[in-house]
Amino acid sequence: MKNVTDSFVSLGHWPSAGSFGFNTDILATNPINLSVVLGVLIFFGKGVLSDLLDNRKQRILNTIRNSEELRSGAIEQLEKARARLRKVEIEAEQFRVTGYSEIEQEKLNLINSTYKTLEQLENYKNETIHFEQQRAINQVRQRILQQALQGALGTLNSCLNNELHLRTVSANIGMFGAMKEITD
């Protein structure tokens, strides 16, 4: 520690001028050398450093400006994309709703058409059954009538003479014609 205090004490005491040499005392020479170097750097480097800092500042400002322009362009594109997405989502929802309603409408139409077709088939079936019943009844009537007529003719032929036979046949033919008109 004594060397440290001696070096500060020796700062106040300068050796005589005229000799040149190296001072190896680091504590005594360093602050002076540093202040000289800093003074020279500040004096001569001030303009260069100022230019370097101004250039750097301009590059940073340009980069910020470009970034802001790119950011605003990206925000515009994002908003356009969001608007297109909303539009597409709305259209998709409309297609979905329209599709569902069309499907439901087609389903109802198909059900109604099927019911109408079944109703028509039921009507045709009933008409066919009624027609066949009437036909069967008419066939049975005709057979019964034929058999009755044949039986009556057989009885009449055995019991009647020719003149009576002819009158009876004429009367029966007239009755048969009248019955046929009634059934038709």
Provide a count of the helices: 3
Please report which band the strand proportion falls in: under 5%, 5-15%, 15-25%, 25-35%, 35-45% or over 45%: under 5%
Mean of residue pLDDT?
A: 82
Regions with pLDDT < 50 over 5+ consecutive residues?
Answer: 7-14
Number of strands: 0
In whole angstroms, the N-to-C terminal distance is: 153 Å
The biggest sheet amounts to: none
Q: How would you describe the shape?
A: rod-shaped
Query: What gyration radius follows from the Cα positions, in whole Å?
Result: 66 Å
Which sequence of SSEs, written as H and E, runs from N to C? HHH
Proportion in helices: over 70%
The computed structural class is mainly alpha
Can you walk me through this structure?
The structure is a single chain. This protein is mainly alpha-helical. The chain has a domain at about 35-130. It has helices spanning about 1-10, 25-160, 160-184. The longest helix is centred in the middle third of the chain and has 134 residues, at about 25-160. Belongs to the ATPase B chain family. Pfam families: ATP-synt_B (PF00430). This is ATP synthase subunit b, chloroplastic.
